Amino acid sequence: MDRIIRITLGLIIVLLAVFVTSISYTGFVEHAYRTSLSSTFQYNCTITTDAVLSNVTFFIPVPADPVGNSPIVAHYSSQEIKGHPADGDITLFDTGKATMAKITTAAIIPPEKTNASHPFTIELSISTESDGVINTRSPVEEGVMFRPVRELKNVSCPTESTWNRGDPMCFAYVIPVYADYQAPLNASVSITSSLRGRNNWKIFEPEFNEYQAGIGERLSGGNHGWADMKGTLESNKGTGIMPVFPQ
Question: Helix (H, G, I), strand (E, B), or coil: what is residue 138?
Answer without folding.
Answer: coil
